[in-house]
Amino acid sequence: MEYISAFIVGGVICIIAQILMDTTKLTPGRILVVFVTIGAILGAFGLYDKLVVVGGAGATVPLPGFGNTLAKAAIKEVKEIGLLGAFTGGIKGTAGGVSAAIFFGYLMALIFNPKTKE
């Protein structure tokens, strides 16, 4: 059942992004920023955690999950070290995921033959 919940929650997030791309003049970059910001706002108010309980990886892997992680890490650092934590918390909280994305992206570029779009 966990896989189905993750599939549904992740799918709904992707459907929302596709609808935004098809019906508005928003660019994919702006949609990315909107999703990360929404995830951070919902995470700051503790609402995104409820979605994570239902959707698991379907809620943590997409972009709003990244925003949620940024917000939670920044809030934690502010509580521990003060205002400076607002700047350092997000970096500390997401460093592992960002490093893994860079590493595995580079590894895939070495294994496969990337081509530019024509």
UniProtKB/TrEMBL annotation:
Q: Which UniProt keywords apply?
A: Membrane, Transmembrane, Transmembrane helix
The protein's name in its UniProt record:
Stage V sporulation protein AE
What Pfam families does the entry give? Answer: SpoVAC_SpoVAEB
- Spans traversing the lipid bilayer: 6-24, 31-48, 93-112
**The keyword Transmembrane helix is assigned to this record:** yes
What PANTHER family does its record include?
Answer: STAGE V SPORULATION PROTEIN AC-RELATED, STAGE V SPORULATION PROTEIN AEB
Determine the domain of life of the protein's source: Bacteria
**What start and end residues bound the annotated signal peptide?**
none
Task: List each coiled-coil range.
Answer: none
Q: Which InterPro entries match?
A: Spore_V_AE, SpoVA
Asked if the keyword Glycoprotein belongs to this entry, the reply reads: no
Q: Which gene encodes it?
A: spoVAE
